[in-house]
Amino acid sequence: MIDSKIPAGPLEHKWTDYKGHCKLVNPANKRKLEVIVVGTGLAGASAAASLGELGYQVKAFCFQDSPRRAHSIAAQGGINAAKNYQNDGDSVFRLFYDTIKGGDYRAREANVHRLAEVSVNIIDQCVAQGVPFAREYGGLLNNRSFGGTQVKRTFYAAGQTGQQLLIGAYQALERQVALGKVKMYTRHEMLDVVVIDGKARGIICRNLVTGQLERHFAHAVLLCTGGYGNVFYLSTNAMGSNVTAAWKAHKKGAYFGNPCFTQIHPTCIPVSGDHQSKLTLMSESLRNDGRIWVPALKGDKRAPNDIPEEERDYFLERRYPAFGNLVPRDVASRAAKERCDAGYGVGTTGQAVYLDFKFNLINKYGKAEANKLGIANPDTNTLIKLGNEVVKEEYGNLFDMYEKITGENPYEVPMRIYPAVHYTMGGLWVDYELMTSVKGLYALGEANFSDHGANRLGASALMQGLADGYFVVPYTIGNYLADEIATKPISTSHPAFEEAEQKAAARINQLLSIQGKQTVESFHKRLGRIMWDKCGMARDEKGLKEAISAIRQLKAEFWSDVRIPGGSDQMNPELDKAGRVADFIELGELMCQDALDRKESCGGHFREESQTEEGEAKRDDVDYAYVAAWEYQGDSQWQLHKEALQFEVAKPSQRSYK
Amino acid sequence: MQHYTMNLTLKVWRQKNASTAGHFETYPVAEISSEMSFLEMIDVLNEKLIKEGKEPIAFDHDCREGICGMCSMYINGRPHGPWQQNTTCQLHMRAYKDGDTIVVEPWRANSFPVVKDLMVDRSAFDRIIQAGGYISVNTGNAVDANAIPVEKEKADSAFAAAACIGCGACVAACKNSSAMLFVSAKVSHLALLPQGHPEKKKRALSMVAQMDKEGFGACTNTGACEAVCPKGISIENIARLNREYMMAGLSESE
Lengths: 658, 254
Description:
The complex is a heterodimer.
Chain A: H1 14-21, H2 27-30, E1 34-38, H3 42-54, E2 57-61, E3 79-80, H4 92-102, H5 109-129, E4 154-155, H6 161-178, E5 182-185, E6 188-196, E7 199-207, E8 213-217, E9 220-223, H7 244-251, E10 256-257, E11 262-268, E12 291-295, E13 312-313, H8 315-319, H9 329-341, E14 353-356, H10 358-373, H11 380-406, E15 415-424, E16 427-428, E17 441-443, H12 461-481, H13 495-514, E18 518-519, H14 520-534, H15 541-561, E19 562-563, H16 573-597, H17 621-624, E20 626-632, E21 638-644
Parallel strand pairs in A: 1-2, 1-9, 2-5, 9-17, 18-19
Antiparallel strand pairs in A: 3-4, 6-7, 7-8, 10-16, 10-20, 11-15, 12-13, 12-14, 14-15, 20-21
Chain B: E1 5-14, E2 23-33, H1 38-51, E3 74-75, E4 78-79, E5 101-105, E6 114-116, E7 119-120, H2 123-130, H3 152-162, H4 169-173, H5 180-191, H6 200-213, H7 224-228, H8 236-252
Parallel strand pairs in B: 1-5
Antiparallel strand pairs in B: 1-2, 3-4, 3-5, 6-7
């Protein structure tokens, strides 16, 4: 039976009550307790820094050459917080409600409410660290709006919000390193969790420079290792983003929650060819000012600027007049796919739609600037020139990035965009305290499943990562470690460490001994193709069953025909990649299994069999209002545990953005 | 935009590890699309090397969208290649034409020892940040975010300095291997904000001391760092660092 450990009492008091009653560890004992943090993105860096500040002995690990490189750095648009600085009706309750609704009623109310509560503290903390958020001329903080909401609650730093937040957390982390409270291990990859008497007690990792396997003990282990979008090969994730740490934990007993919940982001730069190694996001914030359209005429090959207004189909505005271009990501993605599948797509591949800034550039920004400057009856060129300057300040780096990749100037020609895999709402199952089903093993940030249900709203990933690391785990971990103060450090020569290291070494040797004909990359590409075609934006029973058998076949082929050059006692990026791809293959099968089990459509999970007559997603609250928590039971075998979701405050209704 | 394919000759620095001498290897690469990124072109070459039973070229890369700061190739004598305000991962092959020869090296600086092939060790940058590149505020210490207004102009300048991605191109471009642009960007970011004021003297002094300890060279105002910086960090920051350092030094010795 799954116990999510949600505190009793009214929703808005749960977290306060929890904090008032959880166990504490006194400062002298904190110094004796060791904590391992794997991953140094927003969740990991903020957790490691905060735990170091509290006095715990922390060891932090990342596979990159510096903790500052974690992929949180690439988040563009912003971070939500219920500050209501704009006086537009925002509140903790509204942020909570929007997140639950945006997640299509598949997230836990108590977790989401806590997230909304601490959101305000995050902004305070970040500003105190020197995060240079955008400001108004009066010197106060500025906000922008994001999809799925009707208030302006998003704080931002141009199109580089993730970078600025991560640098804040990274600096706090490095400060603890300097103080000797955190020991940092860069270019290290976790290969297993060590579990002793049912409790996580350390990790095995590979030093990626020397190839050496290392053993590290701790009283508790935090996995802050991000999402698994790279299972699709092409995604907006970094090249190194992987599921390995989470997957090893899963195989050691941690349940995997809602693995099929994947976010396909509507506005990414389309694929240009087979050589494509990754996809690049164009922030959702662009939908504030860009209008999405396709030609109204099927197969219209004219250049976008030659297509007159009345021959354009602004399909989001047409289908969803209330939210228009600001519908949530899952809705926008499916609508774009629908138009392209119907033959209205643009660009050489026909797999793209336009994101056009001209209207707002002239009418919103140009006119406002002209007004400020007192220019009466400005001509269009003046308006465009004035508008360009404002747009440059808001989104300059994104426009530059688009031009570098495509060679086209988005100030003049509409962007071409298409949905791409961006975020995974699923992840390791955790309880209210962020502990997985293995005692003493925690999962934070995108690595856990907890707060976004079946669809994440824009600007909420940064919020969740930092909430977990700065303001949740520092309390909840004390509640566990208070009972561990008598536990002396366990020697890494303990048989459990011995066995875990041997297993990791054996797997590496097995991979290297295959010496087949196909490269790791080619397997990864094939896996991605299967996942995108059968477990992507739309899924059905037949396709998912085909995918499962194709993945099993791919797995067998991988383990008999992969070719990895070099050895194990050296730096070997191909070997590292092979280990990650092997794990992605296994995860891919579980994702399809989960998607098959969930016969309803909800959020990012769209089952063809479950839709309304107008083609909108149809949720089934009678049979599927649960978190699917999968327990690993051996090769290709899982046991499904269901955590029933109770909605006491935000009563489920069919989502409508019309 | 017209797309085309090209055949190229690559001369790439190969080096087993920090303690072994390196050398250039020449590789022909064929059928490269102008739509590929530079790193995708290297991917193509690596796939070919693996199939031929050779070791692929090791290089640092991660986000491939110009923000993580991990990619670091010295291409035809210029960090990150020919484009202005650009990282290696955002360089695209339309910058080249059929028949071109491209020389690829790692960052060259004593403070950035080669790890393997094109990968270098930039942990010196982390240690400089450890010396004072932060504001000492524990989680939970903060006042309301709008309690301290910050002039928009100052906030914007702080952001422009904070946009540094820590890639090290500034060091690689400098004839003295100076890290002044990197250090000054951090000192400026924090000195421009009221939150950073209480520690600004100590910060400037200890970050510069650590920079010297790491063996980075002196700044002679050549401006090569600014010219290659992928984020357009201005050398005005260096002037600000010098000012901060001098003021701090003067008042410390009182």
